[in-house]
């Protein structure tokens, strides 16, 4: 962020930003770029952060907002980028964002920090991402890998339903390739089907995969989990939702709980 840079997005009210591009990057997955009012403006985010995006409800009954995770870097000037998975025919804000055309405006509020990530805070970080749950994991990996002082060993297991559903693979593989071994990636699919060429992991994430690829429970390690509710339930237990309160982490149960992980070394996005 340069001295003359201004934070473009307010934490207290929705700031309208103009869509400058909307590109399909996978099955029902879009990369949407939003321009800041000035090319010198910045996002003002502390990693790992998210922002709220407004959208029209599908039934036309008004506007609602949902959280999304910027995948552009904190120091990117003039724009922010989102990766959004559309739920066609059922989604509300996801469909609103994915249908946006260059020139359209989207209301954005934030950024809000979910967990502060700084270089060498942990020795090892494991990541379990399901589908669009890749976005916070990518944000954290990019932030740590961009620091020349950082030595964190990061291992990601990126889960999708089938090999065709995997998106951003080129981007993720390129990050790993230039990380000097600091960032390792394993792809896992529920079903490889007739994809004989599939060389990755198959089936839902299990204890053997966690033991083999991710850090063991330790004070200087952290496992980050982001995916759909059934994935949280199986891997670490769901987040705790109470009316009128921000979502809480909830107890660590499931595969990670059985392996001795606790809230000190697991974070649910
Ligand atoms: C901290 C945080 C960060 C997030 N970051 C991102 C991000 O970077 N990119 C992104 O794409 N999403 C992200 N999400 C999810 C996002 O906030 C919305 O929940 C999602 O886009 C669906 O919102 P919606 O308004 O379209 O659908 P909703 O109105 O919430 O749901 C409508 C219907 O859509 C279907 N649906 C919604 N979600 C799912 C799901 N996960 N699996 C299957 N069906 C579903 C269901 O049928 C549901 O009844 C994040 C969530 C959190 C909590």
The first-level CATH class of the largest domain is given as Alpha Beta
Helix content: 10-25%
How many H/I helical runs? 6
- CATH topology term of the largest domain: Rossmann fold
Category by helix and strand content: alpha/beta
Which ligands, by name, code or SMILES, are bound? Answer: flavin-adenine dinucleotide
List the domain count as a whole number: 2
What amount of the residues lies in strands? 25-35%
The overall strand count is 12
End-to-end span in angstroms? 26 Å
Which regions contain 5 or more consecutive residues with pLDDT less than 50? none
What would you call the shape?
globular
Question: How many strands, which pairing sense, and closed or not: the largest β-sheet?
Answer: 6 strands, antiparallel
Order of helices and strands: EEEEEHEEHEHEEHEHHE
CATH architecture of the largest domain: 3-Layer(aba) Sandwich
By CATH, the superfamily of the largest domain comes out as Nucleotide-binding domain of ferredoxin-NADP reductase (FNR) module
GO molecular function: cytochrome-b5 reductase activity, acting on NADH
Binding site for FAD: 66-68, 83, 85, 93-94, 135
Domain FAD-binding FR-type: 12-118
Enzyme class: oxidoreductase
Quick overview:
With 269 residues, the chain is an alpha/beta fold.
């Amino acid at each position: 962020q340069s001295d003359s840079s201004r934070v473009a997005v307010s934490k207290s009210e929705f700031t309208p930003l103009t869509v400058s591009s909307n590109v399909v990057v996978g099955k029902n997955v879009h990369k949407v770029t939003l321009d800041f009012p000035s090319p010198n403006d910045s996002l003002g985010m502390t990693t790992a952060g998210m922002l709220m995006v407004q959208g029209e409800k599908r039934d036309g009954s008004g506007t609602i907002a949902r959280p999304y995770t910027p995948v552009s870097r904190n120091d990117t000037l003039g724009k922010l980028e989102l990766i959004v998975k559309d739920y066609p025919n059922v989604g509300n804000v996801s469909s609103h964002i994915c249908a946006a055309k260059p020139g359209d405006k989207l209301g954005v509020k934030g950024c809000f920090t979910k967990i502060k990530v700084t270089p060498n805070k942990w020795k090892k970080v494991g990541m379990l991402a399901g589908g669009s749950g890749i976005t916070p994991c990518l944000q954290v990996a990019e932030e740590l890998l961009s620091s020349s002082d950082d030595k964190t060993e990061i291992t990601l297991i990126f889960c999708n339903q089938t090999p065709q559903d995997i998106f951003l693979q080129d981007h993720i593989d390129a990050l790993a390739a230039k990380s000097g071994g600091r960032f390792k990636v394993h792809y896992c699919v529920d079903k490889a089907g007739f994809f004989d060429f599939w060389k990755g992991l198959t089936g839902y994430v299990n204890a053997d995969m966690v033991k083999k690829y991710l850090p063991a429970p330790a004070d200087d390690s952290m496992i980050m989990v982001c995916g759909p509710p059934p994935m949280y339930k199986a891997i670490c237990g769901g987040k705790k939702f109470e009316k009128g309160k921000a979502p809480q982490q909830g107890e660590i149960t499931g595969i990670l709980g059985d392996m001795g992980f606790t809230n000190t070394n697991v974070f649910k996005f």
